[in-house]
Design brief:
With 123 residues, this protein is mostly beta strands. Helix content is 0%, strand content 52%. The model has no long low-confidence stretch (mean pLDDT 95).
């Protein structure tokens, strides 16, 4: 079992930044990929970014490339999502997820999910 807890969401103006955290507990994460997904009202869940725990390889959705950075802090069992140049279109509930399946961009590849944290970007 893996337990995930997100934090760091809030209200920010367009062009601003937020840093989300995903703290993991339970099983070792050595073989896992940790991902961020987001979902806005009326829209389907969207892949944002992912990172492999042991290798640190990163992946990004096209809508956030160049603006968001995913990283991990192994000692803290935490994955971060640094979000810069935020746009109103980034407004959503952001969830972190852990899984070992492919493709990494599909939410069905992840078996463990956090509770979500709200990000609201005002224009």
């Amino acid at each position: 079992q893996v337990q995930l807890a997100e934090s760091g969401g809030g209200l920010v103006q367009a062009g601003g930044s937020l840093r989300l955290s995903c703290e993991a507990s339970g099983r070792t994460l050595n073989s896992y990929i940790i991902a961020w997904f987001r979902q806005a009202p009326g829209k389907e869940r969207e892949f944002v970014a992912a990172i492999s725990w042991n290798g640190g390889i990163t992946y990004y959705g096209n809508s956030v490339k160049g603006r968001f950075t995913i990283s991990r802090e192994n000692a803290e069992n935490t994955v971060y999502l640094q979000m810069n140049s935020l746009k109103p279109e980034d407004t959503a509930v952001y969830h972190c997820a852990a899984g070992m399946k492919s493709p990494i961009q599909r939410d069905t590849s992840y078996g463990y999910w956090g509770q979500g944290t709200q990000v609201t970007v005002s224009s």
